[in-house]
Design goal:
- The complex is a heterodimer.
- By secondary structure, chain A is of the alpha/beta class.
- Chain A has seven helices and twelve strands.
- In chain A, the strands form two sheets. Chain A has a nine-stranded mixed β-sheet, with helices on both faces. A two-stranded antiparallel ribbon of chain A has the order 2-3.
- In chain A, helix 2 crosses helix 5 and helix 3 crosses helix 4.
- Chain A starts with 8 loop residues before the first strand and ends with a helix.
- The relative contact order of chain A is 0.18.
- Chain B is α+β, with helices and mostly antiparallel strands.
- Chain B has a seven-stranded antiparallel β-sheet, with helices on both faces.
- In chain B, helix 9 packs antiparallel against helix 12 and helix 10 crosses helix 14.
- The radius of gyration of chain B is 23 Å and the shape is globular.
- The two termini of chain B are 42 Å apart.
- Classes of the chains: A alpha/beta, B alpha+beta.
- The interface between A and B is medium-sized, with 20 and 25 residues.
Amino acid sequence: MRPSASRLLNILVPVKRAVDYAVKIRVNPQQTGIDTNVKHSMNPFDEIAVEEAVRLRERLKASVTSIRAITIGPAKSADTLRTALAMGADSAIHIEIPESAPSPEPLAVAKTLRAVIERHNAKAAKEEDKVDLVILGKQSIDDDLGVTGQMLAGLLGWSQATFASKLEVDVEKKEVFVVREIDGGGEELRCRLPLVVTTDLRLNEPRYASLPNIMKAKKKPIEKLTPADLGVDYTPMFETLKVAEPPKRVGGGKVANVDELVAKLREAGI
Amino acid sequence: MLPSRAYARNWSRFSRANFSSAVHPVPSSHLTSVSENDVAHFAKFLAPASIISTLSSKPSSAEELDPFNNDWMGRFHGRSTTVLKPKSTSEVSQILKWCNQKRIGVVPQGGNTGLVGGSVPVNDEVVLSLSNLNKVRSFDPVSGILVADAGCILQSLTDYVAPHNHIMPIDLGAKGSCQIGGNVATNAGGLRLLRYGSLHGTVLGLEVVLPDGTILDQLTTLRKDNTGYDLKQLFIGAEGTLGVITGVSILTPPAPQASNNVILALPSFDNVLPLYQTVKRQLSEILSAFEFIDRTAYDLAVKHGQGRALADEETDGAECFVLVETSGGRREHDEEKLNDLLELLLSAEKPLVNTGVLSQSPAQFSSLWALREGVTEAVSKEGKAYKYDISVPLSLFKEVVDNTREHLRSKGLLHDKAVKYVLGYGHVGDGNLHLNIVADAYLPEIESALEPYIYEVVASHRGSISAEHGIGVMKTHALPYSKSAINIELMKKIKHVFDPNGIMNPGKVLG
């Protein structure tokens, strides 16, 4: 039985191409940033987001009409979209910016995503074609800012559930049950669609991309847009003054007994 | 770079009575045991921390010596009273000079990760640990030539050359613990041999302390030097029976700019050989590894959490798996070649592979490798392993594994209390199969069922009874299966030239 008209899910998954987490980071000599001539891959939290979208489809079957991946970045970012497509996304959107341009700031990213969603929803022929669930990584591992999802929810006026470690969607009721990771443990929320969710580490373990899916991914469509097409200004509002490595660890010393420890602590002025 | 996996040493799984009878050696009558006088002598030139002995003035307990007396698999056990950990080549020289005069047996030991009992004493010989000789002496980033102390851990050397965009020419599962001196002494093969060749080619020079204490300094950094007999080749692979390696000069290749790997699930083992030919042809110079693991090996690796498993749909109906690695200078070029290969494989009329998984990030790259590298550890966690590292024609890999299983079944040894699993994995590209028999316990009946059966099978195919693991103490009696009497006679003569008193690693290699 086909799910009734208003009970379908359209998922948008923003992904970011970031320095791979296993890379040893080095600060550039000018101390303005890090050496980016290293291996990049999809931000691990975004991988979890794509995986969650694909798992939702596996659970809810035909209720999930579309999974769209989107990225903002230079030409190389298309690889990240291909990975998302290979994991199971249906189509992708590439907001292309020049190679030399600085990485867009979270507010600009959120505004871009809002523009894409509003543009799509305005053109949607039926209510059921509108994007109603956005799953993002809670933060990207290159800047660790962790604010894009929240800003997007604010701009759209949608509910938000961040640091999700569990996600259950009831399409019939248009409700989502989320467990959030907080300091004290897990906070359980019931949210109404449309919803912005950001993923935390324990939500799932992303799958490997299998060869047949990688081959299929090459034929899936990638739409290309520019920030100008969406009317979003990427002029940075922040200026990075300096990037430096933390001070190198110096060796400790062993003490023979408690008295010596106390003496050393006094020496150090503690 | 992800931290390498130093294996967990679980000494509590040792039972001192757990001897392997066929390799229980006869104590050498021509050697002297270490005495308190000897330890006092060593204390004159070694730092107190460099001596672990039950005979010293501040004696250690026998348990402190366990990690040095017992091998990694828990199969071979020595009874040494004294472990020495010199900090310099000259200290090594002084130790050997004394031991040679007093006819005390010496066992050089690196990371003690060997799989043939070559690094632990057969009786109460002194254990000479190279662990404190662990400095890099020099590295030339232009030529890639690295000069290091023998006790440097392989992973540390890999980390050292990485910022200069170089890699070590060898790579093996034990990299977090094995030392370069040991690697050279055993002519370790490993996962990169297909691409970079053996240590006989990449080692440029050695510093060796001979059994009489003489320091033979052949630590050249010359790429080409044809001046007389190349003595270092004797020490490479001699397993510590001709001298102690204290320094290594080795050529490190440039790090690949792009690395990729893919695990392919094959419906039948018969496809491995044609797959290898296709892969070689399509990938040509970027192919850097071609490893095979059978279904049992894969399941064990997953069971013991060695790496993330493939999805069930991907492993359904797979009889074995192949891991292919590419390393090249240009990412786009390599990916194109790899994609063409994969499309060719999947779209063939009679596909050689069911499906496969291609790594999408460095993290997944490591995870896929972990499935292959972790088989050794998984086997150890599952039970007691009998390992046969053999070279036989590639087409016979599966047959050898299946026949061994049948052979054990016919002897009534295939059950939970004896042999639990028979599996195979290995370096297809090098014709090297690691046949593993996982047992509940080391039992003499299992051993007599396996030997000489396996050696006879290997000899019948003119293969090697030890492709890369070496002879150690485990295979001394089996040497004649792969080397003729003339060969062995000459080896004994050479041994006598270097070590007339027979103190170097007694009971190993030549017996």
